[in-house]
Design brief:
The complex is a heteropentamer.
Chain A: H1 6-10, H2 29-32, E1 43-45, H3 55-59, E2 65-69, E3 82-87, H4 96-100, E4 106-108, E5 115-116, E6 123-124, H5 161-165, H6 177-184, H7 192-196, H8 203-211, H9 215-225, H10 229-235, H11 239-243, H12 255-265, H13 271-275, E7 285-289, H14 293-304, E8 308-312, H15 321-324, H16 333-345, E9 349-351, H17 362-368, E10 371-374, E11 378-381, E12 394-396, H18 397-405, E13 415-419, H19 423-434, E14 438-442, H20 454-462, E15 466-468, E16 471-478, E17 485-495, E18 504-517, E19 519-522, E20 526-528, H21 535-540, E21 543-544, E22 547-548, E23 561-563, H22 574-593
Parallel strand pairs in A: 7-8, 7-10, 8-9, 10-23, 12-19, 13-14, 13-19, 14-15
Antiparallel strand pairs in A: 1-4, 2-3, 3-6, 11-20, 16-17, 17-18, 21-22
Helix pairs in contact in A: 6-8, 8-9, 8-12, 9-12, 10-12, 14-22, 18-19
Chain C: H1 2-11, E1 14-21, E2 24-29, H2 34-44, E3 49-58, E4 63-72, E5 77-86, H3 102-113, H4 144-151, H5 163-171
Parallel strand pairs in C: 2-5
Antiparallel strand pairs in C: 1-2, 3-4, 4-5
Chain E: E1 25-29, E2 41-47, E3 50-57, H1 65-70, H2 74-81, H3 89-104, H4 110-138, H5 142-163, E4 172-173, E5 176-177, H6 185-208, H7 211-217, H8 225-231, H9 236-239, H10 247-250, H11 271-295, E6 317-325, E7 328-336, E8 342-348, H12 351-362, H13 371-378, H14 382-386
The chains are: A alpha/beta, B mainly alpha, C alpha+beta, D alpha/beta, E alpha+beta.
Amino acid sequence: MPKMKLKDIISPFYVWQRSFEKPYTNNKPIDERPGAPSYRGFHVNDIEKCVGCGTCETICMNNAIDMVPVENLTAQVGDSGLRPRFDYGRCCWCALCVDICTTSSLRMSNEYAWVTDNPDDFRFTPGVDEKPWDDHPLGYRRDPDYSLLKLERPAMTMLSAEEGLNSFDEVVHGFTPEQAIVEASRCVECNICVATCPAHMNIPGYIKTIREQDFEQGLRLLYETNPFSSTCGRICTHRCEDDCVISHLGKPLAIRWLKRYITDQIPAEKYQQILQHKITENGKKVAIVGAGPGGLSAAYFLRLKGYQVSVYESAEKAGGMLRYGVPTYRLPDDALDKDIDYILSLGVSIHYQTTVGKEIDFQVLYDENDAVFFSTGLNVPSGLRIKGEDHPRVLSGLQVLCDVASQRDPGVGKKVAVIGGGNVAMDAARVCRRIGAEVTILYRRRIEDMPADPEEIEEAQAEKCKFVTQAIPGLIEKAKSLKQVVIQWGEAEMVADDNGGRPRPVLQEDKMHTDSYDCIISAIGQAGNYSFLPEDIKQQLVSQRGKFTVSNHQQTSNTKVFIGGDIANKTADAISAIADGQNAAIGIDEVLSLGMGTK
Amino acid sequence: MEYWITKIAYYLLTVSIVMVYGLLLSAVIAKTMARVQGRVGIPLYQPFIDIMKNFGNRTAISHGIMFYLGPVFRLAGGLGTLAFIPVIYGSEMFSNFHFAGDILLVMYFIFFGQLGMALGAGEGGHPYSAIGIARGLAQMTSYEVPFALAVIAVVVQYDTASISQIVAAQQGGFMNWTVFTNPFAVAAAMLAFLGMTGYAPFDVVMAPNEIPIGPATEFHSSYLSLMQINRAIFAGAKLVLFMNLFFGGAGNLIELVAKTWAIYMIPVIVGVAFPRFRVEQSVRFFLKIPTLIGVLAIFYVQYIVLK
Amino acid sequence: MKSLINRLTEQFKVSLEKQTKSDLCFIRVNKDDAEQLIRHCRDHESYTHLSFLTAIDRIEDNKFTLTYLLHNYQSHQSLGVHVELDRENPVMHSLHRLWGQMATYQRELKEIYGIEFPGSPRLNDEFFLEGWDQIPPMRKEFSTVEFCEERFPIREGRQSTDAKQTMKVEIYPGRGE
Amino acid sequence: MKNEDNTFANNGLLPEEMDLFCNARPVPYEPYSIEVVEKFFNWMRANSLWIMAFGTGCGAIELNPLMTSRFDANRYGIQVRPTPRQSSVFVIGGYSSVKTLKRIIRSYEQMQGPKFVLALGICTINGGMYWDSYNTIKRLDHYIPVDVYITGCMPRPEALLSGFFELKRKIKAGECDGANRYVKNLDWYKDNQKRVIKKWDMPDYNW
Amino acid sequence: MPSISQQPHKFDPPLEPDLTSGKYVKIWHGPQHPGITGNMSLELTICGDEVAHCKTHVGYLHRGFEKLMERRTFIQNFPVVCRIAVPEPAFNEYLYAAAIEEIAEIEVPELAQWLRVLNLELMRLASYLMWLGGSSGSFGMTTVYQWTVTHRDYILDLFEEMTGARIYHMYITPGGVRAKLPEGFKGRVLKVMQGVEKLLYEVEKVVFNNHVFKLRSQGLGIISKDMIDEYGIVGPNQRACGFERDLRKDQPYLVYDQLDFEVVTETESDAYTRAWVRYQEMHQSVSMIRQVLDKMPEGGSFHADLPNVLHWNVPAGETYVKAECTRGEYGYYMVTDGSEYLQRIHIRGPSYTHAVSVMEKLAVGINIADVAGLMVSLHTYPPEIER
């Protein structure tokens, strides 16, 4: 028992001094104290910005988020058309969804009071269902310095520009295992890219196999949709990466190189054992014209379905543009051969140096087979359409590439001008640099307008190709020496298009230049060659702007004829051709198994 | 007969006034305590609403006949206490049923309600009620000692057992109030009053963190409102009694309000400053200093005042 | 810590599992030696403070691992003692006479893992759960999600849409199968 | 569950306990027939909300500020009563484990009508954080009738206060009939309760 | 198998009294009881006013955290852990983060460490304020309870500004913290600290120099020295017994080695000294918060680089991390197996022993009026017992 002290009796009365001070109480408790500026209150979603990737749904540990279709919003490339709906009977306001939001569309307001007697009200789609806090300016946002997503790509090891210039060795080395895992783990598995990929490859699926180091499964996934994985892993135009949701805030995933990484891990001789394709013959025959990516892809898928496939190729080797149009420093032959060899190993019969229309008649193919697929590609270079373009020192880009690929000397000389801004122009320029020429690239518009891959442009710049932009060639003249040629070109000014199209270059007559080169490489586009088609079939095929109109499954109005590749699609790249081949196979299978289109 | 009817009518009027006043006072006190706690506190009408609400509850369950009677006894205790205390000195209207020995009856009635409550709460069957009642009775018996001593001192001092005569004896200036003529008796009585009002440190009966609500744990709805009404009346009666015995009574309503408020503030001032005693500490406290002072008061009266 | 392990190895059949940091290491000991070892650590090595006792369900090895974490207030080092139990018949000697708090931990483990500690006081009293009629909940084979679905109804009206399927249906129907 | 005379069987009780508990069924209570009286009492009820002092989950932590000086709910007639008999509002503070649910039901049934339930936090609405926990119920309205829901985790005291204001509004409008709903659908509620509370060692209705 | 001897032993629980003798009454304190901290209950057997036997019943708040965390990924667990101890979530966040950082060998930037200390010390102060209110409230002094809860609320305001939420901050993430300090925050912290110091001054006068408070709390629930090891008593309960043990000093974590503070000890080890130790520690916390604000680096990174949290495989490992929370040693025992999920996590809350074994032991023989006071003086939080 404590001793009683007078101090202990009197001191507690000090409590009364508080009654002379201002009370602690808030007068208007509900309005007086809004949430702090970064309070994690109710969600706000900018549905214009949101692409419906569903990463918020994935990270939510409370299963509070559903991705739901929204009125007036449809799925399109790069946007699933779904939007997150929150269940406020589940949400715990941890804001992980805000932190991980790939587009930064999701944020939180500082509103926090929501009271109702109907518990089913607590489900809402922010941005769609109007809520009083939609316009609150304050509230939690992800700190810009803090990200749960990995926005940076591991640096790809590449040959330096100097090293590259000395050889035709592959420039890109491919990921190291550590890099591959780091890169693969950046994927959020939203599946948005699948729609973008023309072949609709299971991209998140095979990226996952890299994380799990299960390359065999990866290869199986790749070969479900794309028999040219090794090739596409190198030269694909990777439109999937443009729509990768990570690209909204950072660098998109290097999907292409991850694909390459998988195929690089598996030697060609193990393909058969891993993929274990079992073919049940169905006795039907399909002829394929052109052993490019489109043709071989169709051959692969048709073969898997049990068709007897014969491919007719005019060149010595299969691969088409992949072999003759793409230089080996981008796509080494062995990588291409790896893919082609596997396709051929399935029992596809291929007839080299057999040009349809010369060695064999299209009509024969048409009659002997149950269906015909052709993807002959664009192999006729377009002319410059200026005076003097028939000068012998004016070469076509394709020709140069083809010569180099066939180990012939293209004879370009030491000082070369390349006209054009597409991939062919870049390739031609870089090839010329490698065989020791000085290269100047002339292009009508600006660099950002160039249709070539940005990486290619960058690499061309690094390899010291001289870029002369906004240069419109006017006239090609003979030079003093036979080995030279003179070009007259004028500077152009970019004029904004009134109709909102892209700006158009207008020649400035007073700023003309004249240069002389050893040769001029024209690489401004290609067209197809359909001379092998019999007239009656040609009549049946509809074409628009030089491209054939085909159905969803590459079928033409002649039910037996299927067309794919550059001559049928607008994008004119390898992966589209592969996709066309695949779809044609589906279409042919549908038609034939339904008993349509038989002889 | 007419005399009694008037008397009863006047009494009922007094009861209602004291009840309303008691409720208002409790709200004022609650607000005062809230102020010390740094807040606004309940509105003044809150006690009335609480009572009405409890009356308006749709269900009420009973644990037996004594459970019914508990609050009734309690209220009877309050009403009885008030019945024999003249509220305003000199006013026929507010003099109630005072008679020569009324103080003894009042002392009895102060006990009565508590006992009735004990029966009711016991029937409720809740252990906290039982503990609370045990505590309440223990504490009451202990604070009754100094209080009784103080009353005895006053009775001896004024040589009467009638409250109105005690008040009358204190008229004629504040120096005639018992508080100045016999401070020991008042000290003992006020210490007992601390226990009677049930504020800390003597809130062992209700003791929210020990035996929440105590005896009233099982009471609800109209039972509870009866008890709340009684609390107001009983508090009023006690205040008036103390005012009459020790602070010279009240000649008019204003004086009544001022004095009773001031008396009520004393336990409040102590109450917010101290935690709660344990019950045996409380008993020990009352049986020590206040009792000594009470004894002293009698001696003081006997040997100094009356000399 | 090294010297401690050496001293212990001399007297008991212990094996060092891992030393994660300078003041914490884990050793493994036989079930039957555990009581002696722990008593020794408490009485002679100043490991007087029992931080906790818990179990790990290693369903893939068909084992329960008990972890006794002891702490030495003098050297500020902690020693984790692992004891492996058979998962089919998990029985461990009750150590409730070493520490007053041990019985509580053992009671918890009995309830959430079903590990028996014969002789431990109040072992079979309900601790966290009331009226539990399933296998002990912390065991790995107990699926809490399935149990919830079966027993606790949730609010209807929740449905999520798969982005891949939606995009396939809306953007490229029929292609890329 | 029912005896023939429409009383509870109280199967959960031991035979010697049977006499200690009442087995009558509760009946619904109709409002006062005179509308003005009912309105008057509703106003009183709305302005004298006595909370049951039972912190059933984490929500109790925000009741402290609400009831103390900063927010001072006392001035709105809200006060805490430590006994169910005298309380009229039951604030379910978030998740309730099965063990607590049993106590909630006992306390709720001991409260005297009209009684109101304020469900606080996400866990009462659809399981919240603990949607996959084996020991917490997911939706409170299956077990006791709920009048007002407040979302949040934790709801701020202000949100809580808005919940109380909404409750007041509903009471004044005469829309809070949870107690009657409970009595009218008692069998359904009891079924739900007994489905999760496996150790039912109490009478069927806790008078 | 060595059999357990049948001889009575000092660690055996006390025998339950014979209820049929009529001498005893069994009453329940809680779960619905204002004197019990949180949702738990005591089954008291009383003889007159004296407690003859006490059993603690916990589990009313059992949510199975350890199970839930085994089926959530590492990042998904981080919002979960703070719910384990409701009045004091920050320590859970810190320990969970620290355990992962230790296993995955993540380096936490310096600024983040300072911010963590600031967060933890503010949390400690808030938690102590809550306790201080409860402590005086349990003895019947509601006035102080009102004051302290209000001042705690001012600290919660700071949290709201700093972290975005009042109670469940979810601020300390594995790898660092979630945000920088807002503009002008330091000034507001100092202002609140001033208020707290004034409050502490008042509280000392009103509570600690209060005869009745001393009467109630002195000599109540004395923890003897040999109980410390028997029951694993930690924190202020241990320090009030004369042991100078504080993890912040003994095994400094974060930047506590750069802060200047004292370990407060007392010797009487009753409810009053335990309260006094905590009261002194509040002063230490205020001083530490001031120091942190002084010494904290101005800029820099506040978050380490993590792998993509959606596919985060923390390497296999096993660790036990602990920190000194208001109640003593709070520990996380984490076992990982290299997958995306935890193999096992065990949370050691100091209340586990304080509220169960210690309470059962100390309650015997005290007056029923003191049960609430004893409970508060041990400072227990039920949610961390049952998790």
